[in-house]
Design brief:
By secondary structure, the protein is of the alpha+beta class. 36% of the residues lie in helices and 25% in strands. Strands 1-2-3-4-6-5 form a 6-stranded antiparallel sheet.
């Protein structure tokens, strides 16, 4: 069975953010780092070479494959900020109030934080994180 490519590292999440070239994306990333750390109470951990995660959970599929994954996190991509948490889709009423974004199954894509309401984003991350924490760590 293959190993996960995305694993927690000991590298500094802040040092990684210092390397983000786009100034708006870098500043937005520092804001997200502080926001998600405050919501989760977890320190930022660099997963792989580009994901910053807060908290983790262990999963095991019926196939026997298992591993660890970040509970909440984000990545400053070249095109956008990708905010990860599989619980977002459970809250369509909150997402309607968020602002301008695109969504995948387990993440939000935001061009810049000024495109969304930060209070609503905080509410969404908190609800999704609480859901994941109860599901995997209770």
């Amino acid at each position: 069975m293959s190993e996960n490519k995305t694993i927690a590292t000991t590298a500094s999440a802040r040092a990684f953010l210092d390397t983000v070239e786009n100034e708006t994306r870098r500043n937005d990333s520092y804001t997200l780092l502080d926001l998600i750390q405050k919501i989760t109470g977890q320190p930022p951990v660099l997963w792989g070479n580009s994901l910053i995660g807060f908290g983790s959970y262990h999963y095991k599929y019926d196939t026997g494959r298992e591993g660890d994954m970040l509970m909440a996190g984000f990545s400053p991509r070249k095109q956008n900020l990708a905010i990860y948490n599989t619980g977002f889709i459970r809250y369509p009423d909150i997402m309607k109030r968020l602002g301008k974004y695109k969504a995948g199954k387990s993440c939000l894509y935001i061009n810049k934080l000024s495109d969304v309401d930060l209070d609503v984003l905080s509410e969404l991350i908190e609800k999704a994180y609480d859901y994941m924490n109860k599901k995997y760590n209770s």
